[in-house]
Specification:
Blueprint lengths: L3 H18 L1 H15 L6 H14 L3 H13 L4 H35 L3
């Protein structure tokens, strides 16, 4: 089983290093992320759950790591994340079930750390 809290820390470290190598691109991505997650017609929690569903269907480990973390920080419950996994499985089939399991493992690990 992956250690999602450690993976989160490692990805942040490497994103910082990538920011040194390609600062304009990383700044642009950071601005896009901020603009996309800022509450408007949808709140940030809902947007993070959408991002998580997409992360599961496109099978992105790092994206699952970040969006489970950020969904929990935005106030998502384990049950809301489980329903997001359910919709991702609907849209992505069996592979999404495997990555959905990883998302639920991440929830458990982050919650054990008090997030």
């Amino acid at each position: 089983m992956k250690n999602f809290p450690e993976h989160y820390k490692e990805l942040n470290t490497w994103m910082d290093k990538l920011g040194v190598a390609i600062p304009e691109a990383m700044q642009g991505f950071a601005e896009l992320h901020k603009a996309s997650i800022t509450p408007a017609a949808l709140d940030s929690k809902t947007k993070e759950l959408i991002a998580l569903g997409i992360a599961i269907t496109v099978r992105c480990d790092g994206c699952i790591t970040f969006h489970v973390h950020d969904a929990l920080q935005a106030g998502a419950s384990k049950e809301e994340i489980a329903e997001t996994v359910s919709v991702a499985i609907l849209m992505g089939g069996g592979p999404s079930m495997v990555y959905g399991i990883e998302a639920m493992q991440a929830v458990s690990q982050y919650q054990q750390q008090g997030l």
